[in-house]
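User: Thanks for the earlier help. One more: LSM2-LSM8 complex subunit LSM8. Can you show the sequence and predicted structure together?

Assistant: Of course, both are below.
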Amino acid sequence: MSSLQGYVDHRVYLVLTDGRSIIGTLRGYDQKSNIVLSESVERIYSADSGVDEAQLGLYLVKGDTIALIGELDEAMDKAVPLDSIRADPIQPVHW
């Protein structure tokens, strides 16, 4: 992964290779792109009941499980009513 320095202390959105979506504040990373997040939550998507959030708190993500990482626009994210979103969960990535 290219440098993550610009994301430190910012809210980020991660999609993991197992299909999970994690949001948190990036607190640190290492040369293997392992990520430390604080105030993190997992968004659990459902085609039937909308989006649930599971509180994770301080969370370590192994770099080789990250498929995508990007900065989260918090104003735009708060404007979207999560209970109205219906979506199938993301399927795991198979190498």
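User: Great, one quick takeaway?

Assistant: The mean pLDDT is 90.
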